[in-house]
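User: Just a sanity check before I run the rest of the batch. Below are the structure tokens for the first item. I only need the designed sequence back.
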């Protein structure tokens, strides 16, 4: 039902604003690299790599989960203006003004619907544009403080449902926290040689430790023990690389 609702919302929004929304071919298959399950972990590791603590990164993830389930192709339900993982608004930070997602992506020659583009734009707004709560987020030492700082300064939401944001943030902290940004590389002499992963980009199975730059979001993924792992997690060296 959620997928049906998202489809209907996307269709309505396309009719309302005439915008070039992503098509079915732009979305990853359930078993492919860049499937939905990777997005929260990828985003958490992205913010950790930018110098945020586990708690601070989890606070950001809790907000993005509430906004969009961290779907870069998310369109606000009912044809509303929100777009992308942070639900930037059409007529505002999505496509209007000096700094917006569309202009940011165009100037770099990247896809505005890609997860990497939207993560980079969040960091651009926080660290370059300013006024979106970087100081407050960096000062946060509890989940509630981190969630509130991003919610009030970056999202500036109306009905925020903060309790849900905090629940999502605590889940992210449990699932991804406590891991070093650059974990110790496992012993490369004992890879799982029999494991394979299906790549939607290549449209075929690939072997263990194959690295693929996904056509769905422009990020690199590595086949690890039969599952796709984002390259932020620093796994074993790639045995083969497939750039776009």
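Assistant: Here's the designed sequence for the first item:
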């Amino acid at each position: 039902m959620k997928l049906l609702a998202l489809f209907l919302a996307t269709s309505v929004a396309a009719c309302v604003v005439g915008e070039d929304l992503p098509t079915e071919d732009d979305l990853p298959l359930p078993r492919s690299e860049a499937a939905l399950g990777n997005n929260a972990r990828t985003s958490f590791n992205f913010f950790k790599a930018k110098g945020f603590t586990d708690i601070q990164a989890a606070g950001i993830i809790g907000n993005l989960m509430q906004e969009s389930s961290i779907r870069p192709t998310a369109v606000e339900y009912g044809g509303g203006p929100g777009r992308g993982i942070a639900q930037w608004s059409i007529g505002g930070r999505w496509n209007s003004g000096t700094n917006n997602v569309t202009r940011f992506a165009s100037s770099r020659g990247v896809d505005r619907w890609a997860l990497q583009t939207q993560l980079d734009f969040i960091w651009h707004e926080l660290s370059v544009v300013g006024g979106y709560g970087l100081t407050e987020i960096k000062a946060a030492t509890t989940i509630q403080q981190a969630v509130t700082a991003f919610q009030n300064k970056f999202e500036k939401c109306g009905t925020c449902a903060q309790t849900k944001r905090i629940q999502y943030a605590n889940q992210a902290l449990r699932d991804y926290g406590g891991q070093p940004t650059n974990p110790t590389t496992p012993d490369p002499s004992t890879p799982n040689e029999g494991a394979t992963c299906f790549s939607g980009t290549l449209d075929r199975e690939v072997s263990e430790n194959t690295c693929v730059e996904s056509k769905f979001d422009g990020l690199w993924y590595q086949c690890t023990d039969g599952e796709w792992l984002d390259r932020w997690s620093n796994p074993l060296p790639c045995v083969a690389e497939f750039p776009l």
